[in-house]
Amino acid sequence: MLSYKVYGTTGPALVLLHGFPLDHHMWIPAAQHLAAWCRVILPDLGGFGMSPLSFSLSLNQVEHNSAVEWTLADYAAEVEEILEHLHWPRPCLLGGLSMGGYVAFQCWQKFGARLAGMILCDTRVQADTPAAAVGRREMAARVLQEGSGFLPGAMLPKLLWPETWQQSPTVPTDLTAVMENAPASGVAAACLAMSVRPDVTELLPAINVPALVVCGQHDVISPPEEMAAWASKLPRGEFAMIPAAGHMAPLEQPLLFANVVRSWAGRYWPENPAEN
Ligand code: MLT
């Protein structure tokens, strides 16, 4: 089963799925604020952090374009195992950032009937373009050849608002450490899975639970205008922008993020656990 950490002891369960190529650490500052009113469950997705990848992946397979039957739905199945293990806490909210959001959509498709709400952070609904998919395969091959050391240089400038480097210097330092230690096979498997992910635009009108869509004001990967546009297709969707943050909004501004989540959730789920 996936490795996961829990912050908080009472209130709604809130599962938060990390982005690429990271692990649960990206959520800890926000979870520390959220734990006062809910139970935050932070998995390491398969092949990241302390969670094993459930199959082996070779450079040969990637270079020769051999079929790799591993998709974002497989990550969702592993998240479902955690919730089964926890006996399906209720109410159960589920969220994810970027790749974690892609997996959250797959979770909705697999077990949405058991979810009370969704939080979609700095993520996208469209599939990769053909050029982007080729770039993913190249990254998969490179990480299997060279290891993960190149990831911070390749990724961090896109992930963070430039001013975060001065205002919160531990953010890039901590992310660098996580990326450098990311298991190469896990990173490669995620690249391949993201390269074939489905467009989920058509799914949005069916997500009939309260859904909070959160975006960093300066996110260049999933920009606010784009996220606000698809958020409007969610029947009970609500869009919130986090100022002074980029793609890693919950990590760049953990308190602002936690306050947005708490004020949204407080309208649907009472703060007093006895009333849940
Ligand atoms: C992430 O933050 O998870 C990535 O930006 C996702 C992606 O590469 O599409």
Which helices and strands appear, and what pairs or packs with what?
Elements: E1 4-7, E2 13-17, H1 28-34, E3 39-43, H2 59-63, H3 72-85, E4 92-97, H4 99-111, E5 117-121, H5 130-146, H6 151-159, H7 164-167, H8 170-180, H9 184-195, E6 211-216, H10 224-231, E7 237-242, H11 249-252, H12 254-266
Parallel strand pairs: 2-3, 2-4, 4-5, 5-6, 6-7
Antiparallel strand pairs: 1-3
Bound molecules: D-malate.
D-malate binds near residues 19, 20, 98 and 221.
Q: What is bound: which ligands?
A: D-malate
Strand content: 5-15%
* Major sheet: 7 strands, mixed
Widest sheet, order of strands: 1-3-2-4-5-6-7
Shape: globular
Uncertain runs: none
Mean pLDDT: 95
Distance from N terminus to C terminus (CA atoms, Å) equals 28 Å
Q: Name the helicity range.
A: 40-55%
Radius of gyration: 17 Å
Number of helices: 12
What order do the helices and strands follow? EEHEHHEHEHHHHHEHEHH
Structural class: alpha/beta
